[in-house]
Structures are given as structure tokens and as C-alpha cells.
UniProtKB/TrEMBL annotation:
The keyword Signal applies. One of its GO terms (molecular function) is hydrolase activity. This is VCBS repeat-containing protein. Residues 332-356 are annotated as: Disordered. It comes from Streptomyces spectabilis. Keywords: Glycoprotein, Hydrolase, Repeat, Signal. Pfam families: FG-GAP (PF01839). SUPFAM superfamilies: Integrin alpha N-terminal domain (SSF69318). InterPro entries: FG-GAP, Int_alpha_beta-p, Integrin_alpha_N.
């Protein structure tokens, strides 16, 4: 099943609730856990290996992965935080070109307006079944008629020339919530071979559009699910992820939010299994706390495992000084019954040590970085102090064991902007690791590492694609910045705050 990732956080945000806008103020250490800029990564022409993601985003169908990154605070024609998405198209030598998309781009629905936040969240899939991946874009701050901050969701359609034109999806319940498009995830939840879309907002109800999308705006139907999270019009959903944790051939949905017991207010993840009729809330299972989640078969047993980032220093079950990552093993009865592994910066083999405010686990993604057929794990720690430089940020690459038994700390590598092969240099409040992504951009069978640093250059942000080499090192020739992507540097665009996974 296609694997996608999403991440959320409760950061300061200008107009939309919850997660995606992980654009906490640049002076904040690590409140940036969400994924604002969802990166869509393409899939390579090479046949997928067992246990590896079967599909990465390929918007132009050339067999090389493409990465979509959000810059939701971008000024467009002088309109503050109208928002933009930058897509880096892969090629044999790495990244071919970077193309910007805004609501003023040809064929994109609507028009750029103040604080629309085009790119609030991103997801991808082949929604019209034409062989090209499409990009779903959340525009959570969009005013719809008199509905202030009602939000909108658009599909930008893939083609041989990349993303071309778009279609707006109708909000099925506009009077019931704000910020439609704040949280997006795609998956085949009923196993019919068509990509569905899950949408979360400020309430506990998650809307599901069944596959069967057309460019005229039709869908395959609609239903809702209501996990046991607190939804009062302010909190609601904090994160969405999909994968097949019970191995039945249907994608499941992980919903992150706050427990329905308001006396406690704890963060929680709920696993909702897919079925022939769609997602089943009645069979939901509670998983460990943490808001940065990915799914993949790390131990090659045929079941996707749930990887959860718990970046808090304390105050929540499973927290550790500096942050932690939990791997919950999937199984036929669901992930809540599986074994659990915990990895911190104090785990044997992991570089550095856990320090308050590091945010280890703030973002993460799975991919086969060294090409050995086992999934590896990329972990962001955007609050890491590097050589005395506050919040410079760092990223750790954890490798899957050679015997396929799961993720290990052995041989882990630490990446900073002073690491050979990583562009630029460590600076205060760069927040390297704001988001991370794994994708085979050049089709050599190894997942390349893409890093977001939304604090780069005073909040302009940047994206750093690093090619994985046969020798285990990483090579990044240059970064993608607002200026190189054709975006104005006015204000704080925050490029790299989220990738589409």
C-alpha cells in the first residue's frame, strides 16, 4: 500500500488550528512539530523491494521521485501568508527543477488572498487513476463566501509536464468546523484500489472522501469517523497518517489528538483499521502518545509498524529528556498488541545525548537510505544546539538491522549544516530538521534524504536534498531557497516547514 506521512504540532500559527503550521515563531525552540509543508515524494521506476514503501510521488510520470514542500507564509502579490508550494522534480542526477505553485498559478482554483495559507498541509496519490500522481493541498485560512477561515482543499493534477490545473473539493460540512484542509492524508481504506482522502479540522470528526475523483469535482462518496479525541472547535485533529498495520491489504488511519477526557488532556494516537466498508471506529486501538508518525514494515514481517515521535522533554507518558521515538510493531490483531522499541539520543550508537529542548522525534520518515532492502529511519531534532549555536538543528539517520529485525542505533549518523555534503552552515534558529523526508530522487535504489530548515535566513526557510552515496555519505550540491524557487523573501515564507508524504 502507498505509504504517506503527516505530522502535527501545536505551534503558534496565524490563522489555523493545530498541527501543520509548525511554523512556531523563530524564537521558539521546538514547537514546530507539525508538518506544514507536506512534501510529496515520487517513486522511482525501479521495482519496489519487499518491506519498502511501494509508492513515492511522481507527478510527471518519469520514474523519479518528486518532493512537494510548503511555504505557507509566502507573500503572493503583496498578500501576507497567502502561501505557496514548491515541487522539486527528480532526475538521474538528483533534482531537475523546482516549480512554485500558488493560487495565482494558471489552473489553480481561487486566488491568492491574505492569510489563506495555501500549503497548510499536503498529501498525494493518483486520484483520477491516470498513471500520474496528484497533489492534495490544504488552504486552511481560505475565506469561503461569508465563512471566515472556512478553509478549502484542492487537488492539483499530475501530467507528463508535472502538476497542471486543479479542482476544488466541496466541504461536506462547512457549518460544523473551520480550517477545512488543515490536516490531510491519503490511503486506500476500503481496499478497492482507489486512493481515498481523509480530512481533519478543529473538531473530532474526520471526513473521508472515497476514491473515484474527477476533474469536475465528483468523488466516490463521503462518510465520517469520530475517534475518541477532544474536539471543541480549537483542538480537534492534530495529525493523520495511513498504512497497513494489520496486513489485511487495506490502509488503516492513525488519528492524533487529545484524549476525550478533558480532565487529563493528554495526547493520544488512535489506530482505525480499514475494512471493505471503510474505516472502523468500533475496532479502534489506542497507541502511545506522540504526534509525529510514520508507518512502514521495519522488521519485514508483512505488517506495517507505527513510528511515533515523542519530542517532549517531560509531562507525557514515554517522554525522555531531549525527545524520543517509539516503534510499535504491527500484527494481525493490530499495532496495540505488538512489541515496542524506544530510541533516544542516549540509545547506544546514537550520536550526541538528550538535552532539554532538542526535539528529537519532532519529525521523522522511513526509507531505505543505504539500499540494503531494510527500512531506515530519519529523525529531526530542530531544537538541537550544535557547537554552542542555539536551535541550529540536527538530523539523525538510524539504520535498519542487516537481519531485517528492525531499527537500531548502531552506525547512526548525525547531520548538521557543518557536516560535509550538507549545504550552508549552522546558524542560530535555522531549525534544521523542521521536516525530513526520504525518497529516491535519482533512481539509484537508495532513498535520498531531504531536509527542511524553516528558520534558515531569518525565517525564509530552505530545503536541502541530499543524495545517498554507495559509500554511505550524503551529497548536497545546493539548497532550494525562496529566491531560487521564484518566491519573494518578504516576511517569513518558512519554506521547508512541511513535506508531502
Amino acid at each position: 500500500m502507498a505509504q504517506r506521512k503527516r505530522t502535527a504540532s501545536r505551534d503558534t500559527r496565524p490563522h489555523r488550528p493545530g498541527r501543520r503550521l509548525r511554523l512556531a515563531a523563530a524564537t521558539t525552540t521546538v514547537a514546530l512539530t507539525g508538518g506544514l509543508l507536506v512534501s510529496a515524494v515520487p517513486t522511482v521506476a525501479a521495482a519496489p523491494r519487499a518491506a519498502l514503501p511501494a509508492h513515492d510521488a511522481d507527478f510527471d510520470g518519469d520514474g523519479y521521485a518528486d518532493v512537494a514542500a510548503a511555504a505557507p507564509y509566502t507573500y503572493v502579490n503583496g498578500k501576507e501568508a497567502a502561501g505557496a508550494v514548491v515541487v522539486a522534480y527528480g532526475k538521474a542526477s538528483g533534482v531537475d527543477r523546482s516549480v512554485k505553485y500558488t493560487q495565482n498559478s494558471p489552473g489553480v482554483p481561487g486566488s491568492a488572498e491574505r492569510r489563506d495559507a495555501f500549503g497548510t498541509d499536503l498529501a498525494y496519490g493518483d486520484f483520477d487513476d491516470d498513471g500520474y500522481d496528484d497533489l492534495v493541498v490544504g488552504v486552511s485560512g481560505e475565506d469561503v463566501g461569508r465563512d471566515k477561515d472556512g478553509g478549502s482543499v484542492q487537488i492539483l493534477w499530475g501530467s507528463a509536464n508535472g502538476l497542471r490545473g486543479g479542482t476544488a473539493l466541496k466541504d461536506p460540512r462547512p457549518a460544523k468546523h473551520d480550517y477545512f484542509g488543515a490536516f490531510l492524508e491519503a490511503g486506500d481504506f476500503n481496499g478497492d484500489g482507489k486512493d481515498d482522502i481523509a480530512l481533519g479540522t478543529t473538531v473530532a470528526v474526520v471526513d473521508i472522501y472515497r476514491g473515484g475523483f474527477t476533474r469536475g469535482g465528483r468523488t466516490g462518496g463521503h462518510y465520517t469517523v469520530t475517534p475518541r479525541i477532544h474536539g471543541n472547535g480549537e483542538d480537534g485533529v492534530q495529525n493523520l497518517h495511513s498504512g497497513d498495520a494489520n496486513g489485511d491489504g487495506k490502509d488503516d488511519l492513525i488519528v492524533n489528538g487529545y484524549e476525550n477526557d478533558t480532565r487529563r488532556g493528554y495526547n493520544a494516537n488512535w489506530w482505525l483499521p480499514g475494512s471493505r466498508s471503510g474505516l472502523k471506529v468500533s475496532a479502534a486501538q489506542k497507541l502511545p502518545a506522540g504526534v509525529i508518525t510514520d508507518l512502514g514494515d521495519t522488521d519485514k514481517d508483512g505488517y506495517d509498524d507505527v513510528v511515533i515521535g515523542n519530542h517532549w522533554d517531560s509531562g507525557i507518558t514515554g517522554a525522555a529528556k531531549g525527545g524520543a521515538v517509539h516503534v510499535v510493531r504491527g500484527g494481525a490483531r493490530g499495532p496495540a498488541n505488538g512489541d515496542r522499541d524506544k530510541i533516544t539520543q542516549n540509545t547506544s550508537g546514537v550520536p550526541g545525548s538528550g538535552e532539554k529542548g532538542d526535539g528529537f522525534g519532532n519529525e521523522l520518515d522511513l526509507g531505505d537510505v543505504n539500499g540494503d532492502g531494510n527500512l531506515d529511519l530519519i529523525v529531526g531534532a530542530p531544537g538541537e544546539t550544535v557547537d554552542g549555536i542555539e536551535d541550529a538543528g540536527a538530523v539523525t539517520v538510524l539504520y535498519g538491522r542487516a537481519n531485517g529485525s528492525g531499527i537500531s542505533g548502531r552506525g547512526a549518523k548525525l547531520l548538521t549544516q557543518n557536516t560535509p555534503g550538507v549545504p550552508n552552515t549552522d546558524e542560530k534558529h535555522d531549525f534544521l530538521g523542521t521536516d525530513v523526508h526520504a525518497d529516491d530522487l535519482n533512481g539509484d535504489g537508495r532513498a535520498d534524504v531531504v531536509l527542511g530548515a524553516h528558520g534558515e535566513n531569518g525565517g525564509n526557510g530552505a530545503v536541502y536534498p541530499l543524495l545517498s552515496t554507495a559509500g554511505g555519505s550524503f551529497k548536497g550540491t545546493s539548497g532550494i531557497y525562496p529566491g531560487t524557487a521564484g518566491l519573494p523573501a518578504t516576511g517569513n515564507p518558512r519554506l521547508g516547514s512541511n513535506f508531502a508524504d
